[in-house]
Amino acid sequence: MADTWLVVGLGNPGPRYERTRHNIGQLVVDELAARRSETLRSHKANARVAETWLRPGAAKMVLAQPNSFMNVSGGPVSALTAFYGISPDHVIVVHDELDIPFDSLKLKVGGGHGGHNGVRDVTKALGTPEFARVRVGIGRPPGRQDPADWVLDPFSATERAVLPSLVSDAADAVEQVVGEGLLAAQQRWHAPRS
């Protein structure tokens, strides 16, 4: 199933975390599903899943949100790759990134986890870091606020005003990775914005 991609939006389950910075990966998967009028449904891999296509006749996409907490995201991701027969080079993990300014995206394959426990657990569960990441910038907390608290806070009013376009951009980036490859997507999204 080389033309099938697993797109995973990381986050925490439950209403307490729905609109927090740590859940931006799940917001992006929600956007990808909404664009295709799909609904995420419960899957035995401890995740919510929608099977869809990039566009008719193009690559299949399995959109997924683990039901587990962020720090143990790897189990559901590994179970989904096994269930669908998807290799790590066709996995895209969408997650929040403290070290990227808010309203920015960075894309990469492989490398370290940068202290992100969800990415760390996915890497461990897949047995390799060689999967694509769409890293959605949330920026660092102001002052001396603990980053662990910052990521679990809701977006500020200023951020909420920009959030729909950031989520849309990240969804566009996922679609471009699936349709055109990582390099083409990097060339678009890493270029300075005018």
Write the layout of secondary structure elements.
Blueprint: E1 4-9, H1 24-35, E2 41-43, E3 47-53, E4 60-66, H2 74-84, E5 91-97, E6 105-109, H3 117-126, E7 132-137, H4 147-150, H5 157-180, H6 182-189
Parallel strand pairs: 1-4, 1-5, 5-7
Antiparallel strand pairs: 2-3, 3-4, 6-7
What does this structure look like?
Helix 1 packs across helix 5, helix 2 runs parallel beside helix 3 and helix 5 runs antiparallel to helix 6. With 194 residues, the chain is α/β, with parallel strands linked by helices. It has a 7-stranded mixed β-sheet, sandwiched between helices. It is built from 6 helices and 7 strands.
* Main beta-sheet strand count, sense and barrel state: 7 strands, mixed
CATH H-level superfamily:
Peptidyl-tRNA hydrolase
For this entry, what is the oligomeric state of its chains? Answer: single chain
Weakly predicted, low-confidence segments: none
Compute the number of structural domains.
1
